[in-house]
């Protein structure tokens, strides 16, 4: 199976009735600002360079962001922050991704999320997280060049460790989430933590662009080692 095969299977997934109902309702009702757009309204696959050494794992698609555009971290303010930072760090060809078919290209980076469908209130249920784990694990297995896992937020951090605990020798107990924390694994890979660029974090100043830039600079350093 290839990443393309996995994507084709993923976008047909209906394992979580609550998420299916929500993503489709949002796509039908739409936000007024996007009333003339065709929403994606399906599970959102990862995006980027299949040979990426940097793998970024967030929480889930935003209802009117990636659930609308069909590209992870695209079409909302969180994505604007992330792609600007990726551009400044040399991983992205452009500062902003606005739709699935835009010409933005990621080099040596892959962007995905622990849960592939937009959840109500941006809060997946534990069962939904667990249902989606199989998709995430299959995806990460195929990203064979991955050396640094940048987890955005505690939810993504937990998802990364859940994956790695089945595939590698990991420290126990799991290091507690903290922005900027870099944890080496015995096989030379690293887990790097950052606050999620959600509006809650960026509007309050909990995460600044300087902090996100620093996390990506550290990711670039670790990728190169």
3D structure, described in words:
Helix content is 39%, strand content 11%. The protein is an alpha/beta fold and 225 residues long. It has a single domain (3-224), classed as 3-Layer(aba) Sandwich (Uracil-DNA Glycosylase, subunit E). It has a 6-stranded mixed β-sheet with strand order 1-3-2-4-6-5, with helices on both faces. Strand 5 and strand 6 (190-194) form a beta hairpin. It is globular and about 50 Å long. The model has no long low-confidence stretch (mean pLDDT 96).
What are the key terms here?
8 helices; 225 residues; six-stranded mixed beta sheet; Uracil-DNA Glycosylase, subunit E; alpha/beta
Order of helices and strands: HHEEHHEHEHEEHH
Instruction: Report low-confidence residues grouped into runs of 5 or more.
Output: none
CATH architecture: 3-Layer(aba) Sandwich
Question: What name goes with the CATH superfamily?
Answer: Uracil-DNA glycosylase-like domain
Which CATH class? Alpha Beta
Number of helices: 8
Helix fraction, binned, reads 25-40%
In short, what is this structure?
It is built from eight helices and six strands, in the order H-H-E-E-H-H-E-H-E-H-E-E-H-H.
């Amino acid at each position: 199976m290839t990443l393309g095969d996995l994507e084709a299977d993923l976008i047909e997934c209906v394992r979580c009735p609550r998420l299916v109902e929500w993503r489709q309702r949002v796509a039908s009702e739409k936000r007024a600002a996007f009333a003339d757009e065709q929403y994606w309204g399906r599970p959102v696959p990862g995006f980027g360079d299949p040979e990426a050494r940097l793998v970024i794992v967030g929480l889930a698609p935003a209802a009117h962001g990636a659930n609308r555009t069909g590209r992870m971290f695209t079409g909302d303010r969180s994505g604007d922050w992330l792609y600007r930072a990726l551009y400044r760090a040399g991983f992205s060809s452009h500062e902003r991704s606005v739709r699935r078919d835009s010409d933005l290209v990621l080099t040596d980076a892959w962007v995905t999320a622990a849960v592939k469908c937009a959840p109500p209130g941006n809060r997946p249920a534990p069962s939904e997280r667990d249902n989606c784990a199989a998709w995430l694990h299959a995806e990460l297995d195929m990203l064979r060049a991955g050396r640094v896992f940048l987890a955005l937020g505690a939810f993504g951090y937990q998802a990364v460790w859940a994956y790695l605990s089945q595939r590698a020798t990991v420290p126990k107990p799991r290091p507690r989430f903290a922005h900027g924390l870099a944890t080496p694994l015995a096989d030379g890979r690293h887990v790097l933590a950052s606050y999620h660029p959600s509006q809650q974090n960026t509007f309050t100043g909990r995460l600044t662009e300087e902090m996100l830039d620093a996390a990506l600079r550290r990711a670039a350093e670790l990728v190169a080692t």
